[in-house]
Amino acid sequence: MKKRWPITILYRAFSSSTTSTTASFPLKHVKKSNFDSALSSLRHHIQAADFVAIDLEMTGITSAPWRDSFEFDRFDVRYLKVKDSAEKFAVIQFGVSPFRWDPLKQSFITHPHNFFIFQRQELPLDGAAYEFLCQTTSMDFLAKYQFDFNACIHEGVSYLSREQEDKALKHVNSTYKDESLDSWHSLKEIRDTHLFNIPDILFAERMKDRLSEWLGGLLRNRDEGSEVQPSFNDSKQQFETIFFKMRPAISLNGFTSHQLRLIQLKEVKDEQKIDAEMSIKASIGFRHVIDLLSSEKKLIVGHNCFLDIAHIYSKFFGPLPLTAEEFISSVNKYFPHIIDTKILLNSNSILQQRMKKSSTSLSKAFSVLCPQIALGSKSTHLSLQPSVKVEVEVDDIRSSNWNSGVKHEAGYDAFMTGCVFAQACSHLGIDFKQQSSSENLAHNEKLREHVNLLYLSWTNGEIINLSTGNRTSESLASNKRKNHYPKILFECIVIVWGFPSHLKAWDIRECISKVYGPTSVISVYHVDETAVFVQFSRAEMVSKFLDLKESLDRNNDPISVLHPLAKLLEGGNTCAASYETYKEICSSTVSKVLFADQAKAVGIKWKTKLVESSDKTKEHESLRKVKAVNSDPSCGERTKNKNFDDVSNDSSYSQLSSDEIIDSFYTREAKQI
Amino acid sequence: MVPKFKPSPLRIRSFCTKTVQQNPHHWPIKQITKTNFNESLSEIKNHISSSDFIAVSLQNTGSFSSPWHRVSTFDTPETAYLKAKFAAERFQILQFAICPFKLQASKVIAYPYNFHLFPRDELKMGMPSYSFTCQTSYLTAMAKEGFDFNTCIYDGISYLSEAQESTVKVRMGNPMAVDHATKSSSSPALSVADTVFIERVRSRVKHWKNACTDSDIKTEAALVTSLRKIVLGGEQFGSRPSMTIDVCSERQVQLVLKMLEDFSDVLVPLIIPAKGGGTQAVRAVLTSSDEDKHLLKRELQTFEFEQNKRVRGFREVIDLISASQKPIVAHNSLNDFTFIHSKFLAPLPPNMNEFICSLRLAFPQVIDVNYLLKDIGPVKKMTNISATIAYLKNRFFAPIEMEIPNQANENEGKIHGHNVVKICQLFGKLCSILKITPDAIESSDDFLASAINRYANIFYSLPGSSQEPTNEEIRGWTNDKRKVSCEDVVFLWGFRERISAGILKNMLQGSHEVFAEAFNVRMVDRSCAIVVFGKPGLSNTFKNVMNSKEVSGPLREMVSDGLKAAGYETYQRVCSSGLWESALADALDKALASHNCLSEAAYETKQSEIYLSNELINLAEL
Question: Highest taxon of the source (chain B) (predicted)?
Fold first, then answer.
């Protein structure tokens, strides 16, 4: 599920502007039944494509409210949150839309594919059962857009990640090796097994010897090619004749079927192994599409796609690495060129102008940049701007103004992303007419500065460069962000949880200010109803605060009861620690809904985690940094405080469901000019 | 109770009347979704109140993620509960089938309903559940049965648990009418501050009331009216004028309420709850007459009633069942009732005893057909209801006629929830075999009650599982009904993967003298095995040997290869501290690691607890 504007309004516009020229054939849905044929045609389209737009639909985004993306996410924490999301939720729809410039028609041709995917446990892999999380609000959101869950679960294309495939192949190898090993064991060690008696053993051993000799001969034959040693050849021949003639002999001699089974075991086993390997190959399924995208090294276009890429990585390659750096470097190996249209639109001034300062949500961008597609050909008043033509082809039906009438679906979203990108390129001055087909679009000098940049976090505008691993804050766009704060110093942050539930951000702020003075606390931010971040003005206050809290917890005397902090510690469950602990808790695979429960589940038994205050130099440095950033601390502070307390003290905050948070996110996104 | 019947070759002839359905695929089970939920409620209510028993059956999105998470024969009731709890907290109920039924001689009259549920966040408060886990294999199996996921997600009935409902009530901040309980708390002597407060509020209320009732003012201009409103702090409550009096403490609430009694002829006080609990304000609503006052009170009641109904959703049915106090028949009661408790009552308590107590308040009698089955004899290994029914059919002559008077809506495609009817059928059969069915005419409730009581509320009856790999080695033990104390069980891990129990046993046999006596080995999952010692005390010797540095002989080699051992208490700690790793070996490692951090004192208490409880497990099914 994507956090995007609902596009119902857009659809209404579609239906009203339907003209005879507007084709309304459906999107190409790919399910189990038509996967093979779709894959072979898609292979050609991707190979010929200039770029491929993608989009994913998932069963959820955040596994707990406190895992949502915050302003207070350091990049490593942000990655951990994305990692958690990609590991827990399932991808249920995958849109792939390869775009190819057709010089004859002077237009792009695209073939949007909408894959329903659902990973089934088709192989007898050991260990845990496949499972995934569903976020209730996301499922409800998908339902609102008439997502076809039946198509997904009944007929979705399954897949195996590369790692799962390797594991399965290894498993097959070891099973067939192990079993023979085990039976050897049992032959040697378990004398009294009812399965084998002495003649059986002798018989089986003899057959095994013969068979392995024969197999060995065969293998050697293969290795040595035509230079077959006559002796081996002889023995093989002999064996084969014996082997094939033996069956009638056996039955004549009145051997038991049990003995027959012993012979057949070997023969059958090899066949079974081949079968098992075949079935592993067959269950790769949808990953073929990803492998294709990766091997073709095409330019991948997505919209705000960091999470999408993380999903692709964890579903189709292997477990996500522990750190963002490792992740980025391996992503870059698999997909050397990725462009995020959201960054593209925000970071280029020409495009910002084109966007008329409207929201950069996908559907909005689509309707602003590609009105000729979004609204049909009739909208002539918009034809002033040069528009890139996009022709859609689905199963040999073509249309230059395609109106699929589809809902909020991955295939359609991928199509929109591609159109936005094509149009944006044209605004950037890329002339597709002069672009030679052999040249990779990603190497175009006008695009080069935008390639491989992804929003690590849209909330605080942090951008990561996949090819270099450098992190930057959004530069050009920064001025238009409504909530633009000076860089957050994470060493100044304390996380407090388990405090009395009636305390709100304002109370906590007041409480701490009483001890350290009115300017000591820059902000108090609710992680959820059970936890807050307290941002101090100076880093050394963190250790001071934790020390004080610890000593108050320890001495339960009347003096500590009267201490201003006592209000915060009431109930005796209040815990506090530095930002590092928050990171640690984020890295856990457990996801309890409330942060306080999560901390317990992670196994935190202490109440205060003191930080080393010995590192004076570091502290000093951070102090300087604070000064440098907050040139006018009082002013910056005031606005900031107001803002945070607004959010956190808002009486409706605790009532906000995630749905509303998503809604408010939309509104914010929409307001961002 | 040993049945006296001999296996009978007689086939039960199906009497094909209009309503008697022997073919399970034609059982008319009413499918209920959001669309027809409200209209069906009263009908369900009638069926529940006229029934003898209520059968329930759930379809969940999963049960256990790893082989060792499954409740198994080596589990004590406590660890079994913890496993069930873990599942109930993560997975979701998608279908809830209930079937109120009557037993009449050899006839079961059943009214089956199958509810499609989805935990939709109707109130936008992150309830009933923020997220839930799905197991692919469960969804695939449901898909094979033709389950319609779209109906379920688009049109499933939502719900809130009792605990959630009470939080919601507070959070929604709906005004509550003052009931006399809260009003009549004794008020101690008034302080000066109290008097000042009361008088100030009184005069404000008086002003406002007069202003509202004064007919002259009604002709004022709109601007003046609105200004007056701002000055006097008046508001509208529905169509009636009202006034909010802010309070700082519960004491002030009492004072205000007491003061408002003086105006009780026209003013109705309402309490506005604060978000964190307690009271935020008192609102006085002005009514024009006594009749109007009653009308307001009735309006408030219906409003609350309607809202509660909307909030509760499917829990309405659970409440009906609970209120009826009828015995409930289930097939896998521990699993089903941990789910029911966590979704519809309250979060699951940390241990089995508290769970049973809490559950008994809502459902005094729960009967597990599995437990009834145990009385019949060697039908232990049946988890599949249909197979059990078939087995009983061949073995006993106990024809049960199913009568389902429901008129299923034919236009609906697929009928789900057959299991619940099968449970009724199986229960009917079992009752007839065990002779606990009252005669249709002279049914004595007391007799039934006492018979039922024998079987009620046994949640953990060592579920046999047919899917477990049958190990030839262990067959010898099957006839041995001996129970094994947890003390004699040792968990063993850190050996080569995919080893079989037989090989492991062989490896152990020569490795140390403790293995000279009879012992048994069984794999729990691929990473871990349990060793059961036949002779008491040997397990401790073995654990000590493993812990000491002087391991010798072949065992030493195994230890240096990574072999580890731990007693049953470590396993219990794994379950109680929620270390649900996918391999039991990893979980045990973690438990040992965290245990080392604990203080000695904590260790001591834990030890004694285990030895005191001395729980027994049935080795027969190992």
Answer: Eukaryota
What is the three-state SS of B498-542? Answer: CCCHHHHHHHHHCCCHHHHCCEEEEEEECCEEEEEECCCCHHHHH
> Residue A59's closest chain B neighbor by CA?
B131
- In chain B, whose CA is at the least distance from the CA of A191? B506
How far is residue A297's CA from residue A442's CA, in Å, rounded to a whole number?
10
Instruction: Read off the pTM.
Output: 0.76
Q: How far apart are CA A51 and CA A101, in angstroms?
A: 9
Tens digit of pLDDT for each residue in B213-231? 765 555 556 666 666 666 6
Span A247-288, pLDDT tens digits: 433 333 444 455 555 556 666 777 888 888 888 888 889 999
Q: Identify the three-state secondary structure at position B21.
A: coil
Q: Pull the structure tokens for residue A453.
A: 């940049």
Are B267 and B202 within 8 A, CB to CB?
no
Give the pLDDT confidence of A288-314 residue by residue, as tens digits.
999 999 998 889 999 989 999 999 999
Q: Which residue has the tokens 């069963």?
A: A59
In chain A, positions 177-236, which contact chain B (CB-CB < 8 Å)? 178, 182, 185-186, 189-190, 193-194
Nearest CB among A128, A143, A656 relative to B65 is that of A128
The verdict on a CB contact (< 8 Å) between B582 and A175 is: no
Q: For residue B235, give the H/E element and its range.
A: strand B234-237
Could you give the residue ranges of the DSSP H alpha helices within A370-493?
371-374, 410-427, 445-448
Average pLDDT of the residues in B289-308: 81
| Residue B452 phi, psi dihedral angles, 5° rounding | -65, -40
How are beta strands B489-493 and B528-533 bridged, if at all?
Answer: antiparallel
What's the rounded Cα separation, in Å, for the pair B21 and B406? 11
* A485: three-class secondary structure by DSSP: coil
Instruction: Enumerate the residues of chain B whose CB falls inside 8 A of the CB of residue A63.
Output: 131
A137 touches chain B (CB under 8 A): yes
Mean pLDDT for B1-16 is: 39
B476 band by pLDDT with thresholds 50, 70 and 90: very low
Q: Are strands B107-110 and B401-403 parallel, antiparallel or unpaired?
A: parallel
Give this complex's ipTM. Answer: 0.75
Distance from C-alpha of A417 to C-alpha of A405, rounded to nearest angstrom: 17
Cβ separation B275–A654 shorter than 8 A = yes
Q: What is the distance in angstroms between the Cα of A573 and the nearest Cα belonging to chain B?
A: 17
CB contact under 8 A, B125 and A135: no
Task: Test A129 with B136 for CB contact under 8 angstroms.
Answer: yes
The neighbouring-strand residues paired with A159 are A285
